[in-house]
């Protein structure tokens, strides 16, 4: 998984005493994604419009790394159930050394290059271009995420909140290689279906918090009409190119912007440019629960955050292995 982004430098100095826990599972979790209709030519009754646009601005994170954060910035602190979205761009020796998580999931999607991860339960591996790691931190994980090659390693990391009933479950991973991600194509539109369903094809990835995660590429002149469950919150992150989202009369939006979508039953997208457009469409069922966050700890009350600090400091209640663990140098 990509290194947990710790929002506060003070938190790093207070907490950085490795700890982490998890169950390593190859691409099979426990709660099925909810079915949803999604065809590239599906007729939408009420297309969603863009109600907020946020530019993901570069900022320093981890150890010498740079990320472009959109969700999690003051302009867009969260979008239930989503807590953070970063586009990371990292070259060695920078990276995200040992750090903890509790109370949510992280989804790391490699766009270019490779990242290696290790945790305090012995889980380790490398995700490469097009691969996905879906980590449920649950009651506690400590891990490191470091670039696994020369040059720039680039990807997205999304944080998804867990419901109160799931915050203290045992950690686990789903790891999906690029070759195993479901794909579909029609009329100049290609999609990689990381979670959810599009063009009648459903991802086998299961999500505890119901989520869709679709990576679309539209050729010049192509258009898309994608269904989204009406009760869900949803957003777009533009990776490359420029496109028109929502209304055909809207202004084009370029790379590195997050677009929050309003109510409706789906999204219409038009590529009127001369180049390809690539973006991710992400949606999820709101939890509608209180959120108290301190860096990489996300709970429902301040008392639970205080308890998490105590658990972390004294290596207990999910952080037992933290006391003696430290990640090892790669290579």
TrEMBL record:
Sorted UniProt keywords: Iron, Metal-binding, Nucleus
Keyword rRNA processing assigned: no
Protein name: Pirin-like protein
Residues that bind Fe cation: 99, 101, 143, 145
Cofactor note: Binds 1 Fe cation per subunit.
Residues in Pirin N-terminal domain copies: 66-160
Record GO terms (molecular function): metal ion binding
InterPro entries, per the entry: Pirin, Pirin_C_dom, Pirin_N_dom, RmlC-like_jellyroll, RmlC_Cupin_sf
